[in-house]
Amino acid sequence: MKPKTAQSLFVVLVSLFAMGAQADSLTGTLKKVADSGVIVIGNRQASVPFSYLDASMQPRGFAIDLCNRIATSVKAKIHRSDIVVQYASVTPENRIPLLLSGAVDIECGSTTNNSERAKQVAFGINHYYTGTRVLVKKSSNIKSYADLKNKKIAISADTTNLGAIKDYLLVNNIDASITLTRDHAEGVMLVESGRATAFATGDIMLAGLLANTKNPGEWEVVGVPLQEEPFAVMLRKNDPEFKKVVDETLVQTMKSGEFEKLYNKWFLSPIPPKGFNLDTSVSEESDTSSGSFGRKSWKRIELNVPMSAEMKALIKNPTDKPAL
Fold this sequence. Notes:
Layout: H1 3-25, H2 28-36, E1 38-43, E2 46-47, E3 51-53, E4 59-60, H3 62-77, E5 84-89, H4 95-101, E6 106-108, E7 121-123, E8 128-130, E9 132-137, E10 152-156, H5 160-171, E11 177-181, H6 184-192, E12 198-202, H7 203-211, E13 219-222, E14 229-231, E15 234-236, H8 240-256, H9 258-267, H10 309-316
Parallel strand pairs: 1-5, 1-6, 10-11, 10-12
Antiparallel strand pairs: 2-3, 3-4, 7-15, 8-14, 9-12, 9-13
Helix pairs in contact: 3-8
């Protein structure tokens, strides 16, 4: 064996040994990723502009961009540039079970960081603040929550918006019924078809949903925000090594100015890629019966939501403080 060849082999063996030693020292999600060679990001199908499917059925959005940066940090942390990023669609109902089971490693959608969920999962640094309001047709003449008396309100199951609406109706003695939906797209379709009067969720998602209807001028978002809710990526509990990577990535993104650039991309510019499809289950053949959300309903939309004082304060002082 030639000296150079022997030397090269020695370097390779030392590198492999070092990688093996590093893998043995990893814990939690980082070890799982290193062992499998895959990091799985849980994404939503219709949580615009945080996490949705584009025309090619690929995950896009503000939260997805942040999580892709986290995935890059994970690769650097474990010295594995070959780690594959995979996506798995989640819903409000199954996002926590899929995370806890290990089917996904990090959930990147529009999930509220609150104390109740913190009993089961952990959260990264908050990346958005929103409040529950309702989307209605202007023709319904609904101007406030009081006008929803004896009306039907659609709300996605297993969301904090459900609790906020229930509490408000109870405290204010408003007798309205609630219909649970699988996701945001279904909720809007119920209102569009007349099977519900209003759909309740975070105001920023309502802005995206309204903008994607066939006739945005026929819709409006009403009601004062019921509570301030921080959105954050969701992680497994008791995994400090992975949470440190997540939080350091988000803080660095905020401090470098990259976070503000991403905010401008998703909240102040036309949402790429010139539109999106909220109802991914509808075929083109059945498009005529699917309301505004069939596969042909592509359009260029823009939310025009300037950064709030709360968001500016978050960038200066990043926090993972939950809602109550």
